[in-house]
Amino acid sequence: MLDFFQQIHEGEHIRDWVEIMQKDEAFCDLIFEYLWLFRSESETRVLLNKEEFPSSLLLRFIYFGYGKQFISGNFESGNYFSQVKTMLDPLQSLKILSLSEEMDRDPTLKIHLLANLDPQTWEAYFDILEGNSFTMQALLGIFANLRENEIRKILLNSPTLYYYLRMMMVSRDQLESDKDKKSKDILQGILDSVHVWELFCLSVQEKFNLTEEKNKKPKERDSLRLSLVLHELVKVPNHERADILVYIKGNGAVIDEWEESTILSVLENHNKNGRFV
Prior knowledge:
The chain is mostly helical. 74% of the residues lie in helices and 0% in strands. The protein is globular and about 60 Å long.
């Protein structure tokens, strides 16, 4: 058995065992059990993102893990799907999104996979949507079963998704029904709240040479930049700060994990003692 799994990780005979998994549910579950146990390993991520790994099996693996997490208790689907998307690259996410019927039944998973797309796969996804006569109503339908705070969290954690949604809201045709208009207004309000942080990141880019900052050691960088970030984050509720920081980092105003962890540590000290240091 160990030799077999070694073959999987080395990419040997992938099509053969994928074919077996599609025919034999018990064997498929055995493989998924192994992958789930070692889901944090880089080899598992490499395997799940192999071109030969079909979208139907990827989706089945996602729900296999969903069941595991649900049985374990203390389970929240949004958090689970947020973790799952880190295991998949943009191309594999697009493959699953192409399963339009299955995706329409699970908008929570759909929106998290959308957040995983990069500019290239977004263009490919737009082609799929246009082929399916995609409308603004369909876009709003993706968010219909999500709370506003969930949508905002997802957008903060995916600057690319936020960017494309803003473009689509501007470019798509006007909505007809009052219900659609209300949904669009809600989504527009969420986008506007994220836009505040987009403008903040742009102001940081204007004030500092981020290319030079990246090439410096952490202690050699301009401390004023992190100070600006801290003073903005302390103005927002504590439970929103981590997601906003992810967005700021995704837009380059915070450079790396060292700066991110430093900011979180200083904010924690501020919560306890009422001061940064």
